[in-house]
Amino acid sequence: MVRASDCATSVSSAGFSKKAVRRFKRSTFFRSGCCTCTPPKCPPPLPQVLFSVSKRHFKKAVDRNLIRRRCREAYRLHKSALAALPAETRPSYIAFLYLAKEITSYDVIETAMKQSLKKLEKLPPAFLKEQSNS
Fold first, then answer.
1. Rounded distance between C-alpha atoms, residue 110 and residue 132, angstroms
2. Domains of the chain: which residue ranges?
């Protein structure tokens, strides 16, 4: 582990903003060859989420956006279930794929979202599975 302030090269001369330079100088980073990786101070409070609606089934962008908005709203209202999980068991990324071929009402989407989030709560963390197999 190396502190950025220990580096001989000047960060400010690389064309970064002052705010980025200050953050870089305070952070701890790892160097591997030519790549530098700055790990986050703590895990993110909630996972990053992707909502996907097929262009094949919904040709009009208006329809895809309507479905995506409904899915996002259902997730927003029920994401507190994920926030209650310990950081070790919380997933980092979640992708929700809308597989129906017709536009469904918000009530149906909300019910499906609740069920999906309950299933996510019951899943064991992936890294614990890998460690138990070794």
1. 35
2. 2-37, 48-127
